[in-house]
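User:
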Amino acid sequence: MRLDQVCEIQSGFTARGKLEESPAGIPALQLRDLNDTADWDRIVPGRFELDEVHARYFAGPGDVLFRSRGTNNTAVAIPEQWQHLAVVVLPLILLKPDDSIIRPAFLEWSINAPGTQRELEKSIQGTALRMVPRNALAELRIDVPDLAAQDTILQAAQLANRARDLESKAANLRHALSDLILHEAAKRAATPKPKKAHA
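Assistant: Predicted structure:
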């Protein structure tokens, strides 16, 4: 299915000039707020002086944000525990999934899948400043099984990620143990042996 068949696609709010912070301003999410892991426990939208903003630009739990510019053109779903509502600022693109068709987490997983990323790569414009056009995102095709199958796939993906994390930690522990053993061996080899007393 085309992406615009499973979610509403809204380009981020276009700010006029530089955003000015203000304690009484409107909460807003910018591209720089999202790191590779998107740790939502640590993401708090800044407040800025903005002109009147239409409701369609606001994002909250259940929505998905797409990084349309830069080297990392991936999506991230806003989790249910995130207790904020914020304006999405370009170059972020706001995706509002049709919850009768697709889970937010499955939409994120689908966009970030290697095959989908390769398709997006074909549509990128610019070299110094890479950008995925909104219409290319809308025309992107993804496989959308029923909701029960999506849940199963997401659980399997979660377990696979957990397994990779454990394997990485185990490898780090093995390296640390090897270094310790070799360090101790070097220390013993460098320690002068006591001379034998002559009779």
